Amino acid sequence: MTSTQIYQLYIRAEVEEVFQALLDPDFTRRYFHGTAFTDPPRAGQPYALSTPDGTPAVDGSIEVLDPPHRLVQTWHVRYDPAMEAEPPSRVEWTLTRAGEGLTLLRVVHGDLARSPLTAASVSRGWDWVLGGLKTVLETGMPLPPVASDPTDSGVEAATSAQDITGDWHRAQAIEINNAVWDQLAGVAAGTATAVGLVRGAYAAAYHWERATGAGQGSDAGERGTRSLPHRQGLAGVRATRSGARLWRPDAGPMRSPRVGRLRPGLCPRVARPVAGRAGPGR
Q: How many other C-beta atoms are found inside a 10 Å radius of the C-beta of residue 52?
């Protein structure tokens, strides 16, 4: 699970038509789970999406409103108590004229790093919302109800919140671990400091601990970060005139793989998981 989800599609409609369909309640209620803006959105102002009976669905603020090419909004879920407790994420809509009567719509749902439940929920929801938007604009009709989802094996529905957050912590650990390796070259070249490496190493250890369930609770989390020197071989970073070196008490100095050879005990780069599909789930 990544902290940014991206989706793009071509729509047989002019850019102005597509942008209007993002804001006009007569359109959004036909493809966006029946929701609509409670008031016309304005740049720099708060907004709210609600169902026809007034139930809150999503709220946030409009950061950019640049018709008919760009809309940026923060995204705070209101329809689920657990997701409501998470911090807001950010949705950016970009519309580009791709030809006569053709629009390329790109949606980037980012800032999901601290909102794993929201990220999991929206990872498939965008398919329905954006497919519905395209269908309404091209045919004038909404999508029919889904009788059964051929992509749903039933496993995802049974996934617990603990499993979701575990996957999220694992993804964060991979990203931070690989970023530490990237920064090593900067330390060796004198363009970065060792402080960031140490912080990154501790952050990676924290997320690894939480991903495996070994770091539940603040005390355990702190123990997890302190245990990194022994678990990951990244007790600290010593920047010398000859380059950056990683060090741990029981293994001695180890040269960065960007500077020299890798010795046992140093956590190597980890393959990043394939990003899932994007979108708001209901």
A: 10
* Shared domain check, 97 and 14: yes
Q: And the tokens for 149?
A: 């989802």
Give per-residue pLDDT as tens, 69-105.
999 999 999 999 999 999 999 999 999 999 999 999 9
**Is the pTM value of this prediction over 0.85?**
no
Q: Which helix (H) or strand (E) holds 185?
A: helix 161-189
How many domains is the chain partitioned into structurally?
Answer: 2
Beta bridge partners of 77: 58
Instruction: Report whether 186 contacts 192 (CB < 8 A).
Output: yes
Q: Are residues 92 and 20 in the same domain?
A: yes
Distance CA 173, CA 186 (A): 20
> pLDDT tens across 155-178, in order?
444 455 556 567 667 777 777 888
Average pLDDT score over residue span 52-69: 97
Nearest to 156 by CA among 114, 112, 113, 121: 121
DSSP structure class, residue 30 = H
Same-domain check for residues 165 and 130? no
Question: Is residue 273 assigned to a domain?
Answer: no
**Domain span including residue 228:** 161-255
Structure confidence at residue 12 (pLDDT): 98
Residue 226 in tokens: 């302190």
Q: Are 238 and 271 in contact (CB under 8 A)?
A: no
221 and 119 in a common domain: no
**And the tokens for 186?**
């900067």
